[in-house]
Write a structure and sequence with these properties.
- This protein has helices spanning 15-21, 54-71, 75-91, 96-110, 118-124, 127-137; strands spanning 26-33, 42-48.
- By secondary structure, it is mostly helical.
- A two-stranded antiparallel sheet has the order 1-2.
């Protein structure tokens, strides 16, 4: 994905991975979006590197979100996200049981034949749509930011 990874899997060329992990600000970046009938949460999670203030992580993340909303994404980023989603789709449907689960799951949230059209839907997404989604869904009044600071470390 453009942000992190799907279902918690880091993508080493994502914008947030590059901005946080490669710059030494975080040790992990992940993202998750669960398909549901109604709009639901898109979760981004970060593990700050030792000594990095959490407000700096938040500042960098929000800056990247604003940059996407304002300037969009490159054709290469869209192509990379498509490849990653196709690979995940294939990986998650590697057996009869997995395919049956996916068919049933998407039947309940989107109706008949949705599963069959996922690959075409992935291919149809444009960079402009990604920027529009960032503007609409990731705006300040539509997000919740939380920080977890451990109070002590285990030996």
């Amino acid at each position: 994905s453009l942000w992190g990874g799907s279902h918690g899997v880091p993508q080493r060329k994502s914008r947030l991975y590059t901005a946080l992990v490669e710059e030494g600000l975080a040790s992990a970046v992940s993202g998750a979006l669960l398909p549901t009938v109604d709009p639901y949460l898109y979760t981004l999670a970060f593990t700050a590197a030792d000594g990095v203030p959490l407000d700096l992580i938040e500042e960098v993340v929000l800056g990247e979100i604003e940059r996407i909303a304002r300037m969009g994404v490159t054709a290469e980023e869209v192509a990379r996200a498509r490849r990653q989603l196709r690979a995940q789709f294939i990986f998650e449907n590697d057996g009869v049981t997995s395919v049956a689960h996916q068919l049933g799951y998407f039947e309940t949230i989107a109706g008949p034949h949705y599963f069959e059209g996922i690959e075409a839907a992935i291919e149809s997404v444009t960079g402009d749509q990604v920027a529009a989604a960032a503007r609409e869904r990731l705006r300040q009044d539509a997000r919740t930011v939380g920080w977890f600071r451990p109070t002590s470390r285990r030996p």
